[in-house]
Amino acid sequence: MNFDQIKNLDDAYGAEVFARFPVAFVGGKGATLVDTEGKEYIDFGAGIAVNIFGACDEGWKSAVIDQLNKIQHVSNYYYCEPQAKLMELLCEKTGARRVFFGNSGAEANECALKAARKYSFEKYGAGRSRIISLNGSFHGRTLFTLTATGQDSFHKYFDPFVPEVVSADANINAIKKAADGKACAVIIECVQGESGVNALDKNFVKALEAYCKENDILLICDEVQTGNGRTGTLYAYEQYGISPDIVTTAKGLGGGLPIGACLFFHKTEHVLTAGDHGSTFGGNPVCCAGAVNVLERLDEECLMEVRAKSEYMRTKLRAIDGVKEVTGLGLMIGLSIDKSPKEIAKACLKKGLLVLTAHDRLRIVPPLNIGKTEIDEGLTILREVLKA
Ligand SMILES: *Cc1c(COP(=O)(O)O)cnc(C)c1O
Fold it and tell me: Which of 28, 87, 99, 319 has its CA 20 to 30 A from that of 261?
């Protein structure tokens, strides 16, 4: 199909929830994508931080195909080798004790929030079910995670919401006030992605950890976007020197296949028991095989390269005319610019560069294995577009 044929079908039949850019990708290699007309693009978006090793990575692809040649799905009534291996890898690399698999970031967070309520109920009884999230956060589109998303714009039309879920500013007094003796958990993104690639203040996060520990409030790190090497460490919380009780991740974990994980550390390791939670597709063996390949490769050498590329890109970005501020961590980069981010993203697309937006910023989250030539080509386009 050519582009117009695809677009006409989508326009006629798709739920109208996406404001799509006028392009359809049919292939690619690494950080270079190809559209229906054969035009090439440098990819600074990685499918929203999903294609962690870019398009059609050979090692990842063969891990996935090997599993496809064995079996595509088994029910969670039975044991499953790729799932077991992935659990072990996640726990060995983080110190987590147990893992639950879902299919998305929202599901990973849904699991974390349910587990937090159960932890508190079993220990303290009713009246301590409050979940606190931060203003500007994004935690997903299910009703529980949407309620926890601290941005009013997402809440229009969908009330009534889940009770006892509140948002507070990222300062410790606001958190204490919101908790009011009724909180079982606080959920944070160390770098808020959707709302503009804002890294949380280290002192606040340390103070939050101390407050949560003192009051037996669970600290949940939503690493759906920041996770899996994106920020230059396996998970972003490592750079904050904290030990969360639950960590959730998704986006980059499967290297492009849908998988979410909820990691339970020692306090929460035995909270969920048989029947408390589940998922038909969660931990799908093909997705797990892809994720095993991703995690095995995210070693110290790979993470050092991510940090080096981050430094390289940030230095070049700061020198571009029209870039006011460069935010975020590692290869999760926000750019404050003096023009409309949406318009700049559209202009970049025309010239063959994919960038994302996040509120009033541009968001750059390239595949971690993006090459230097691709980085330079992408930056050249961005420079030209911002100048025009
Ligand atoms: C994308 C995202 C989610 C939601 O993930 P889905 O896979 O779309 O459900 C949750 N939290 C954060 C921080 C995200 O960036």
Answer: 28
Quick one: which atom of ligand 1 is closest to the CA of 103? Answer: 7
Q: How far is the CA of 251 from the centre of ligand 1 (A)?
A: 7
Ligand 1 atom 5: the closest Cα is on which residue?
Answer: 105
CA 104–ligand 1 middle distance (angstroms): 7
Domain of 218, in residue numbers: 71-297
Look at residue 199 and give its three-state secondary structure. Answer: strand
Considering 277, 297, 317, which residue would you say is the last residue of a domain? 297
Residues contacting 109, CB < 8 A, separation 6+: 139, 140, 144, 145, 148, 187, 220, 222, 224, 248, 262
Report the atom number in ligand 1 closest to the C-alpha of 223.
13
Q: Which residues does ligand 1 sit against, CB inside 6 Å?
A: 104-106, 109, 138-140, 189, 193-194, 222, 224-225, 250-251
In a shared domain, residues 262 and 203: yes
**Burial environment of residue 58 by CB neighbours within 10 A (0 to 12, 13 to 18, 19 or more):** exposed
Q: Read off the DSSP letter of residue 135.
A: B
- 103 with 37, same domain: the answer is no
* Any domain includes 363: yes
Each residue's pLDDT expressed in tens, for the chain with a length of 388 residues: 999 999 999 999 999 999 999 999 999 999 999 999 999 999 999 999 999 999 999 999 999 999 999 999 999 999 999 999 999 999 999 999 999 999 999 999 999 999 999 999 999 999 999 999 999 999 999 999 999 999 999 999 999 999 999 999 999 999 999 999 999 999 999 999 999 999 999 999 999 999 999 999 999 999 999 999 999 999 999 999 999 999 999 999 999 999 999 999 999 999 999 999 999 999 999 999 999 999 999 999 999 999 999 999 999 999 999 999 999 999 999 999 999 999 999 999 999 999 999 999 999 999 999 999 999 999 999 999 999 9
Ligand 1 atom closest to 192 (CA): 13
Ligand 1 binding pocket mutation candidate from 103, 144, 235, 251 (most atoms within 8 A of CB): 251
